Amino acid sequence: PDYIILCVEDTMDWKHGITREVVQKADPDLSRTVIVNTKLDTKLPQFGSPKDVMDFIGAKITDQLSPHKLGGPFYTSVPSGRVSRNANDDDDDDTRFEDDDEFVAACAEKEDSDREQ
Prior knowledge:
The chain has 117 residues and is α/β, with parallel strands linked by helices. Helix content is 38%, strand content 16%. The protein has helices at residues 18-26, 40-43, 50-58, 60-65, 100-116, and strands spanning 5-9, 33-37, 71-75, 82-83, 96-97.
C-alpha cells in the first residue's frame, strides 16, 4: 500500500470501535490499517479472570470483522511507576518516583537488565 493508517483507539468492545468506524470511511476493509489499543493497564482491573484478559488480547472478533486488516491489534500501556507531583505525598508505594529523572533512570536500568538476559 502507498499509505498505512495507524488506528489508535481505547476500547473494551472490539465489535464497536468509534475510531475504526472513522478509519473505515477511508479504508473500508482495513487492508491499509494497523490497529493499536491504548491504555491496556487501565483495563486489567475490569477483567474477571485471566481467561477474560486472554480473550480480549486475542481479539479473535477483529479477524472475523476485518479479515483483511493490515495488522494488530497491538497494545500500549504506561509504565507501572508513577512520578510524585506532590511534595507532601507520604505514600509508601515503592512504585512511586520522586521526579522524572529518577523515573527515566529506573527505566534505563530495567532496559539494560532486560538486554543482558
